[in-house]
Design a protein that fits this description.
The protein is built from 14 helices and 26 strands. The protein has helices spanning 73-81, 143-156, 174-196, 209-220, 231-243, 259-262, 266-271, 309-331, 347-360, 390-394, 410-422, 438-445, 452-459, 483-494, and strands at residues 2-7, 13-19, 22-29, 40-49, 54-58, 65-68, 97-104, 113-115, 118-121, 125-129, 133-136, 161-165, 202-205, 224-228, 249-252, 276-278, 284-289, 293-299, 335-340, 368-373, 379-383, 395-397, 406-408, 431-437, 462-468, 475-481. A 6-stranded mixed β-sheet has the order 16-17-18-19-21-20, with helices on one face. Strands 3-2-1-14-15 form a 5-stranded mixed β-sheet. The chain is globular.
Length: 495
């Protein structure tokens, strides 16, 4: 049974998907690192690149986005009419304004990937403005029903609209379909109207990707359990459950203990950031993420096996292949991935590794393409990138070793401290004394200490602080007690 644990009680939002007692997916969204995928902006063309058939778009963020010719409604219209020309200059010009949507977040030095084909989705229908297309889920139980919905979509859609009929539409009425289609058309029309009143590139519509991700997890399977610690989100999800007659069981957790800790997965979540992953047989993996690609090194460690050397290496690589596929999904590692398996002499062993990865990566919601082994024995694959990895979200280059290693960011440590403080919110003490370095305190209290009174009100306690020196992002909750006694303790610490 699938189980979701959603931790929304603090500013850093998280949810974990648990299957067969193990976390298979972990989504973490710090308040300043929310994904822009799905957001709609008013953009302005800053540079057209005929050689790449693309353009740079200023959409109001720090870096310009990248838009390919094929993602333009004007090109799609010419393609429908059979009048398309190859040069992007025929369809877009510098200074032109247009609605764009983010399809891939910016990462490192690369700007976001954009599209002019604006897409909105519901549990039943995906609506795309600017392209002539109809698709029907292949998961329909009946081929006849699939064909009926394809015909229905072609009957009601306009020439510049794309529609994808999702599995949840099977068994539903035409009235349900038309209602959702009308809603999506109205949403696009309203955004277009809003954009015409804007003078410079800026955000037009923000997608609630976190809640959508949870609903997608729930839609993918007929039933399961969801535990959430935020009452507003609980109410929205209960309404969704009733509207869709879902078999999911939804629970609101009000206990003082962090919901991840309560479910016994806090330590598992923290392990997803570790560079070294230990395997049960004593071997281990090392993950090295770079801007260009990710390298995974397989080591035998203490595993020697009871059979011949070749069989020992093969068994280690097979176990490693399973764990690597799991870790790539858990850590959301994407792009080019190179795996340095322990060298195997027999071709059938390499084929078995390939077949194992081919089977297990089918469970990944992201598209994984297996290339295979190089002449040097390095296994190559790619995983579709739509957002940053956990490491990119939650860690920074180590200031001590000048970027050759990584440590927890100030944001990660501050939100960990916030969650721990929230576990003590029902204690009767008047105040709490904490020690932390200034970067962690700055994140915890917010800009100009604006979040400090909010946090103190939620805790029903005054927060006293002593600053730790150095660049290490760490903290310690020293004591709970009355304000006066903790002020004396703080004075002693400072002297």
């Amino acid at each position: 049974m699938k189980k979701l644990i959603a931790n929304l009680s603090t500013r850093e939002k998280r949810y974990a998907c648990i299957e067969n007692g193990r976390i298979t997916k972990l989504e973490v969204v710090p308040p300043d690192h929310a994904s822009s995928v799905g957001n709609v902006y008013l953009g302005k063309v800053t540079k057209v690149l005929p050689g790449m058939e693309a353009a740079f778009i200023d959409y109001g963020e720090k870096k310009s986005g990248f838009l390919y010719r094929d993602e333009l409604p004007s090109y799609q219209e010419a393609k429908r009419n059979g009048t398309q020309k190859s040069s992007v200059n025929q369809y877009i010009r510098e200074g032109e304004k247009l609605l764009v949507q983010v399809t891939r977040d910016e990462t490192g030095t690369k700007g976001a990937k954009l599209t002019g084909l604006i897409e909105f989705s519901s549990n039943h229908v995906v609506y795309i403005h600017g392209i002539d297309y109809v698709g029907v889920s292949k998961k329909f139980k009946s081929l006849e029903s699939q064909n009926q919905w394809r015909s229905m979509a072609f009957t009601h859609k306009k020439a510049d609209e794309g529609l994808i009929i999702r599995t949840a539409m099977e068994g539903k009425s035409e009235a349900v379909f038309l209602k959702q289609l009308h809603t999506q058309r109205e949403k696009y029309a309203q955004l277009l109207k809003k954009a015409t009143s804007l003078k410079k590139p800026t955000l037009v519509w923000r997608r609630d990707s976190f809640l959508e991700s949870i609903l997608t997890e729930m839609t993918d399977v007929p039933g399961g359990e969801l535990h959430v610690d935020d009452f507003t989100c609980f109410q929205e999800l209960k309404k969704w459950q009733e509207d869709h007659e879902s078999d999911w069981a939804i629970f609101y957790e009000t206990g003082p203990v962090n919901i991840f800790s309560q479910a016994g997965i806090e330590s598992d979540a923290e392990q997803a950031l570790k560079q070294v992953v230990r395997l049960k047989n004593g071997s281990y993996l090392i993950f090295e993420e770079t801007e260009a690609f990710t390298v995974v090194d397989v080591n035998t460690g203490k595993f020697t096996g009871k059979a011949q050397k070749e069989q020992t290496l093969f068994e280690t690589n097979m176990q490693a292949a399973k764990e690597i596929a799991y870790q790539l999904r858990l850590r959301n590692i994407s792009g080019i991935i190179l795996i340095d398996f322990i060298n195997m002499e027999q071709a059938e062993h390499r084929r078995a590794i390939f077949d194992m990865l081919k089977t297990i990566t089918k469970q990944d919601e992201m598209r994984v393409q297996l290339i295979g082994f190089t002449e040097l024995g390095i296994f190559q694959l790619t995983r579709k990138r739509t957002s940053t990895s956990l490491s990119e979200k939650l860690m920074i280059a180590c200031p001590t070793c000048l970027g050759t290693g990584k440590v927890d960011s100030a944001e990660t440590v501050a939100f960990r401290l916030e969650r721990e403080l929230m576990e003590h919110r029902k204690l009767e003490e008047e105040a709490v004394l904490i020690e932390a370095n200034d970067a962690v305190i700055a994140i915890l209290f917010g800009e100009n200490d604006s979040y400090k009174p909010v946090l103190e009100e939620m805790l029903r306690k005054e927060i006293l602080v002593t600053i730790l020196q150095g660049n290490d992002h760490r903290y310690e909750i020293k004591r709970f007690g009355t304000k006066n006694e903790l002020m004396k303790v703080r004075e002693n610490l400072l002297t």
